[in-house]
């Protein structure tokens, strides 16, 4: 059996005592650690054109409640985080001795081998270094170490299975689950930036998933309801939270299941043109709308429309981009118009009945446009 760790032990989350905390920075001493075995690679490592060694590293989180009940973070096919009801803990492993007298803890990771993708490498390294079978959730970012000539791709992973024995454990390496404060204290200094960016990335993912869940299950997320969702955003600060307060905090819904904080309007215009309808609803000139439409700031039924003369029919769902959501550029604040009725009256023209939300949260489609354009320019 390998060196004991805290994988299945009872944890107190953020309430860890100072005595318990001080136990963490004491991985095996150099006499117990097989340095050469620890450095052994199973294959040839690869480098990029500039000579930088290609690495992959893992950022694993779990949720540990005060009664010791361990739960992993799970993200479903919609990007929603589930099982949210306990403080976060980060997985670190004891680092290899580099000749200094000080021991340290690091994110699991290592070199990418030939004919291996970075995603395959991070799953393998997590298994070898921490005895954990993981699943890649998303890429957090890429980091360059000019001193050691390393190029590291960092991924967030969920934990599928934990093993009592693993390859590097036999060589004296240990694994520890630490709360965020402890992880910041004991992580190797040159990996602190990676740790902080990982925490930020999960925070943004959490915000996005909460709003996505809000929209998919209970209607569009009106900006006015965001303060009521604040408890959800505090999860990353080790505050207990479950999804039930979200449902309780949402505004009342109408018979169609949509939040009632909309305005209903009826009007008649001479055509079914997009620019004419927007001018009527938003109270602006059709000339000023020309630039807005041509810049890709208007979607109809989630499709970007750049034709001012595009015809609007019953049940069409229109979004007009306002600005990115502060703190998360993957989301945006927009104006939403839902066409409830559309009838043609021979004497006056087209009679519309609409529902109008002045500010609500949606995905930032303009950010996606910019990223696509940048990729096309790079390929050219």
From TrEMBL:
Q: Where is the Nudix hydrolase domain?
A: 65-200
Top EC class for this record: hydrolase
Superkingdom of source: Eukaryota
- The identity of this protein, by name, is diphosphoinositol-polyphosphate diphosphatase
Asked whether the keyword Transport is assigned, the reply is: no
Q: Which organism is it from?
A: Meloidogyne floridensis
| Reactions accelerated catalytically | diphospho-myo-inositol polyphosphate + H2O = myo-inositol polyphosphate + phosphate
Family matches, as CDD domains: NUDIX_DIPP2_like_Nudt4, S4
Q: Where is the composition biased (Basic and acidic residues)?
A: 32-47
Required co-factors: Mg(2+)
Pfam families annotated for this entry?
Answer: NUDIX
């Amino acid at each position: 059996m390998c060196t004991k760790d805290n994988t299945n032990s009872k944890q107190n989350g953020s309430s860890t005592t100072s005595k318990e905390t001080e136990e963490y920075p004491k991985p095996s001493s150099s006499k117990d650690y097989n340095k050469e075995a620890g450095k052994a690679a199973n294959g040839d490592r690869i480098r990029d054109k500039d000579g930088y060694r290609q690495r992959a590293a893992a950022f694993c989180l779990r949720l540990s409640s005060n009664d010791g009940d361990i739960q992993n973070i799970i993200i479903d096919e919609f990007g929603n985080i589930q099982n949210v009801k306990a403080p976060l803990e980060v997985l670190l492993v004891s680092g290899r001795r580099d000749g200094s007298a000080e021991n340290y803890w690091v994110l699991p990771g290592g070199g990418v081998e030939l004919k291996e993708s970075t995603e395959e490498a991070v799953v393998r390294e997590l298994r070898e270094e921490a005895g954990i079978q993981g699943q890649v959730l998303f890429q957090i970012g890429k980091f360059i170490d000019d001193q050691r000539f390393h190029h590291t791709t960092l991924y967030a992973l969920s934990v599928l299975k934990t093993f009592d024995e693993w390859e590097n454990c036999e060589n004296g390496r240990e694994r520890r689950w630490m709360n965020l404060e402890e992880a910041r204290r004991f992580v190797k200094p040159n990996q602190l930036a990676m740790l902080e960016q990982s925490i930020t990335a999960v925070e943004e993912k959490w915000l996005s998933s909460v709003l996505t869940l809000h929209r998919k299950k209970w209607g569009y997320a009106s900006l006015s309801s965001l303060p009521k969702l604040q408890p959800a955003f505090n999860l990353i600060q080790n505050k207990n939270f479950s999804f039930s307060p979200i449902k309780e905090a949402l505004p009342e819904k109408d018979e169609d299941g949509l939040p009632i904080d909309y305005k209903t309007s009826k009007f008649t215009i001479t055509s079914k043109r997009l620019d004419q309808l927007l001018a009527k609803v938003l109270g602006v000139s059709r000339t000023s709308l020309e630039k807005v439409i041509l810049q890709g700031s208007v979607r109809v039924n989630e499709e970007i429309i750049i034709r001012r003369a595009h015809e609007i029919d019953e049940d069409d769902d229109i979004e007009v981009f306002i600005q990115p959501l502060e703190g998360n550029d993957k989301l945006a604040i927009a104006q939403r118009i839902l066409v409830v009725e559309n009838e043609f009256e021979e004497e006056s023209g087209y009679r519309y009945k609409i529902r109008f939300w002045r500010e609500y949260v949606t995905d930032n489609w303009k950010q996606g446009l910019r990223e696509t354009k940048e990729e096309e320019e790079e390929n050219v």
